[in-house]
Every structure is written in C-alpha cells, then in structure tokens.
Amino acid sequence: MTAKEIETVQILLQKLIELKARNLYGDYVDSPMPIYDGVGSPEKYSSSKIKVMWVLKEAYDDFDEFGAPKGGGWEVYEQWGDESKLKEVTSVRSWQPIMYVLRALSEDKNWDDIAWIRDEREEYVEALRSCAYININKMPAGKTSGDLSESFNIWCDVINAQILAYAPDVIIFGNTMSYFQDQSYMNKYECTEYHDLEGVAPAGIATIGDKRTLLINAYHPNQKSITRQEYVDSILAAIRFHYDKLEMR
Hints:
249 residues; alpha/beta; Uracil-DNA Glycosylase, subunit E; seven-stranded mixed β-sheet; globular
C-alpha cells in the first residue's frame, strides 16, 4: 500500500471507530470519545522494509468526579510528530521498548549497538512513527488494565479490520495475544518449535487474509519480568529467526 492509500484507509477506520463509539455511548455532550489508534506516519510505515504492528491494551485520558474515565477524541500518536513534545513522548515507559525494537530492527542492530533514547530522541520518535499501533479498547480507560475480554468482544471486528487494512509483516502482541485465540486465523497459527532457545520470544506464522504474518507473543512493553535488553533482543531474535529460516522476505 502507498502512503496515500494508508491515509485514506486510516480515515475510514477512524470513522468506523467513531460510529461504533456513538452506538455504544450515545452522542451527548459528556459522552466519552474514542482514543484513535493506527499508523503514526503513513509515509514511514509504507516505506518500512518490515512493517510492524503493536497490539496493546488501552489508553487513558481524564476522569470525572467519581473516578470514571472520560475524555478521548484524540489520536494516540498525534504527539509523535510534534517536535515540542520530543521529551514527553520519549519519556513514556510503555513506548520506550517499542522505540528500541523499531530502531534496532530498521538498522539491523541489537540492544548493545544502539544509542540511548535520551541521546537521540528525535531519531527514536521517527522510529516510533513507522509502526502501526493499536489498542484493544478504543475508549478512555483507567490507569491500570484488568481483563479486557469484554472490550475485545466489542472491538474485535474493528481490530481485525485494522489488521487486514494495515497488512503488517509482523504483529507484536504486548500481553494481548490470549484475546485472539478464537479468531479464525489463529486456527492455522503455525508456532515454530524453538521455545527452548534462550532469548527468543515465542512466535509463529499465521495466514491473515492472503498474507503470511509473523505473530509474536511478547510481554507488555512496560513489563518487569525480564530486563529491557532481554525484552528488546528477544523480539528482534524472533523476527530474524523467521525471516532467515522461513524466507518470509
């Protein structure tokens, strides 16, 4: 897809998200609005050698006097192209591992070979803009996520439309893959038998539409189970394993 085609598709997907939100919550002055997700930069995504999508959980905005989420009406990636927000964007802990993965992947490097984010903030934000970034829950949420099964049931048709439309080569699930187990393409999910290999994130191949796509079952980027270096390098290793061994290029 060209950048212009991605732009057009993204507008249509946002209208679909908005329509679904209005059907769910009504069109009142105080009704919450979606927090839109998708591709940060259609130009950078379309020109990426390996197109990567991250599937995370949900975002938050504001809260009413009773602590209920409210707000929305903005794009999760809208600050990524604002130079005045460089420090703010690069300080988000959940985005930092994503930036490291994308930068290292684009330059064919590993954790030890790339600069710290604080030293090259602009370059890391540009890497972040090259991905498709979607959340399971499209509405404003709390600051911590619980079970999102209900949200997934509400939004799964939109999420699958996003996956088909953006046609990523790699989908990295940030502790979200379990919600997708009943999707038809997971029935043919070919998980390669290398889970005992040290330092490689669990992954496999699924056919989504007419495209073979690498699915990586990763921790959430803000996880604390392994070091950040292990997190980044294990995802990079999974991508390179499949591209080298299964000739997905």
